Amino acid sequence: MKPPHSPAIRTLLRGICKRCPRCGQGPLFRKWYTLFDRCPECDLEYQPRDGDNWGFMYLGTAFVTGILAVGILLLTPPNLWIGRVVLLVAAVVALGGTLPNRKGFAIAFDYVIRRHWDDADTSGPPEPVDAPTQERDPQ
User: Fold this and answer.
1) Which of 21, 8, 18 lies closest to 104, judged by CA?
2) Is 125's pLDDT higher than 50?
3) How far is CA 51 from its chain centroid?
4) What is the model's pLDDT at position 120?
5) Taking 50 as the threshold, does the pLDDT of residue 16 lie above it?
């Protein structure tokens, strides 16, 4: 399979595959959902600022829930209770089973954003840019 042309797409695919977004070699997770602080291969700090990917995780959960809602509308079960049980199992599998992949995607997305803004290797918020000052010429 040919690698994607865009470095951003390649980075996001690394996140979905639960690999380091920078090098693609180091794992993101120590256990099923226990995140390493840094990549063991390239030393990238995965979450330099806590909370940067909470919003994206929320949107990812809403997206999966939306897919389930569309499924409910399109498929009519022969029995209401069977439909509820199938929906519950599908929700647990879809939301729980994809949680590490969605978290990896969120970390990779955050890395792409930080790299775009030349902030990929810092551990804190970017420094504010001072406004240029005008100096008066003594005449």
Assistant:
1) 18
2) no
3) 11
4) 47
5) yes
Q: Which of 18, 45, 15 is nearest to 121 (CA)?
A: 45
Show the tokens assigned to 23.
């090098």
Residue 38 contacts residue 28 (beta carbons within 8 Å):
no
What DSSP assignment string belongs to 23-89? TS-SBSBSSSS-B-SB-TTT--BS-SSTTTTHHHHHHHHHHHHHHHHHHHHH---SSHHHHHHHHHH
What mean pLDDT is predicted for residues 85-93? 90
Between helix 99-116 and helix 7-16 the angle, nearest 10°, is 150
Which has the closest alpha carbon to 57: 20, 113, 99, 17? Answer: 99
Instruction: Tell whether the torsion through CA atoms of 70, 74, 75 and 80 is positive or negative.
Output: positive
C-alpha–C-alpha distance, residues 139 and 124, integer Å: 44
Q: Which residues are registered as beta bridge partners of 19? A: 27
DSSP annotation of 95 reads I
pTM: predicted TM-score of the whole model, two decimal places: 0.71
